[in-house]
Amino acid sequence: MTKNKHDDDVAFIKALAELLRENDLTELQVKRDYAEDDSLNVRVTREHPPVAGYAPAPAQTSAAPAAAAPSAAAVAAPAANEDPADHPGAVTSPMVGTVYMQAEPGAPSFISVGTTVTEGDTLLIVEAMKTMNHIPAPRAGTVKRILVDDGAAVEFGAPLVILE
């Protein structure tokens, strides 16, 4: 590799890192082909704070007396500090993108709470770089919770759905 080509590659990688920062992205991957047997494959990533909608809620203190029995609704609701990503039935996003709950606007949603799915059924779509990526059910089960809204932006690893 020539010195000039190396300098150009370094400048290119620095420009990618700047794009990552300016656009608040967590990952960017590019492949440059120079010749048949010569290419540059670059993946630039950075740590990113969790998406606000997916951070565990802080524990709340209650002014109610400790001896009071919890209501049935309180027992059925998930704990305030429970992280959905830690749930054994969590289906997480394999990429950064935008969530769509149906194949096209006006079409019925792929799933709703209570839907029974089999392994491989489409749960939702994550659009990334103008590509619609169908997210399949990793196993058969029932949809217990949907943790994202239609049209919401998601990060890699963000919990999308809870299957049980």
UniProtKB/TrEMBL annotation:
| Segments forming domain Lipoyl-binding | 88-164
Annotated Gene Ontology cellular components are: acetyl-CoA carboxylase complex
Entry keyword set: Biotin, Fatty acid biosynthesis, Fatty acid metabolism, Lipid biosynthesis, Lipid metabolism
Region annotation Disordered: where it falls in the sequence: 51-90
- Give yes or no: UniProt keyword Hydrolase: no
CDD domains in alphabetical order: biotinyl_domain (cd06850)
User: Which Gene Ontology molecular-function terms are recorded?
Assistant: acetyl-CoA carboxylase activity
Read off the SUPFAM superfamilies from this record. Answer: Single hybrid motif (SSF51230)
One example of a Gene Ontology biological process annotation: fatty acid biosynthetic process
Low complexity bias: where?
A: 52-82
Q: Spell out the InterPro entries in the cross-references.
A: AcCoA_biotinCC, Biotin_BS, Biotin_Carboxyl_Carrier/Decarb, Biotin_lipoyl, Single_hybrid_motif
Please name the pathway: Lipid metabolism; fatty acid biosynthesis
Explain the purpose of this protein.
Answer: This protein is a component of the acetyl coenzyme A carboxylase complex; first, biotin carboxylase catalyzes the carboxylation of the carrier protein and then the transcarboxylase transfers the carboxyl group to form malonyl-CoA.
Alphabetized PANTHER family for the sequence: OXALOACETATE DECARBOXYLASE ALPHA CHAIN
Tell me what this protein is called. Biotin carboxyl carrier protein of acetyl-CoA carboxylase
What gene does the UniProt entry assign to this protein? accB
